[in-house]
Amino acid sequence: MDSSVDDVNKLVRVNWRGGIPLLIEGEATDFSGNVPTPVFTFASRNSYLPHALSSAISQFKPSLVIPVHLRTLWFEYGNVALPWHYPIGVLFDLCCAQNDVPFRITIHWHAPPPGHKQIVCPELDFVKKDFFHWFKQGMYIRYGSRLPFTEFRDDDDDVLWDGVMGGDVDRYYAIQKRMKTYPVKAVPIRLMYLGRVVKEGKEEKVIVLCKQVSEEIETTMTTVELVKAHLPKVDFERVTVRCQGVECPQGVSVSKLFDVLAHADLFLYICVCEY
Q1: pLDDT tens per residue across span 113-129
Q2: From CA 205, how far away is CA 195, in angstroms rounded?
Q3: InterPro entries under this entry (predicted)?
């Protein structure tokens, strides 16, 4: 993988243009009559479910039988509860190892299963606040300092957020590039996998954040080496390791992968996907 500036810029642009077709459905028991017609849409890999599905949510609401004060919004794919606070691209990579499209998502308004309170979708303003919480944490790990925060101006949050939601790399990097005047210290990484747990006698698949780690910028550690270090029981005959939908090439360090495949929150998500 060529790390020249021109090639990195091209690869970053290709990465940001990447998106996922979504088929959005409602749960039949949530509606008083016929279930609304499913909605097809296309979402940026860097976006988040509450925003990407906002139009479908608005279309489904008038037909709901559940009283407003009892509605609890959450999302599901094939019996896997989807955490709203991870980028859509990460959720797709974990749930659809065979690249099955469209990404078929069910919207629920009834209470989620026991033990799944963390998947309940908050108000849209909170989604934005949560993104910036992790963005600032990723920035602190990346630069080892809070000084880059001083580069933010009054309306930068809105411009950067609009860039993320719209998949607009130029709006995003117009803000983010000012941070690059500071020396880079480390690579912020999140290692994710689709695990299995037993609840009330039934096996469930759950999306798991195995580890949030940072590696020194000079590291030569590859994704496979990192997975082996933190998930030693993984059978590499049955899984693939991906970042931003790309199967991680052998021998490429996580530092180089970060330069082109990091998500907008400044974390490199390494997804261990079981076939």
Answers
A1: 777 777 899 888 899 99
A2: 6
A3: Atg5, ATG5_HBR, Atg5_HR, ATG5_UblA, Atg5_UblA_dom_sf, ATG5_UblB
Round to whole Å and give the CA distance between 77 and 22: 11
Quick one: pLDDT band at residue 274, thresholds 50, 70, 90? confident
- Reference 84, options 132, 49, 112; nearest CA is 49
Angle value at C-alpha 187, between 2 and 242, nearest 5 degrees? 65
pTM for this one?
A: 0.91
DSSP, collapsed to helix, strand or coil, labels residue 177 as helix
DSSP E strand boundaries for the chain = 19-26, 39-44, 74-77, 80-82, 103-108, 186-199, 202-216, 239-243, 246-247, 268-274
Positive or negative, the CA dihedral 98, 101, 106, 107 is: positive
Identify the pLDDT of residue 37.
93
Domains defined along the chain, listed by start: 10-121 (3.10.20.620), 125-179 (1.10.246.190), 186-274 (3.10.20.90)
DSSP summary character for residue 269: E
**Which token pair is 217?**
């910028």
Q: What is the dihedral of CA 116, 119, 123, 124, to 10 degrees?
A: 180
User: Which of 11 and 192 is assigned the larger pLDDT?
Assistant: 192
Peptide bond into 50 cis (omega under 30): no
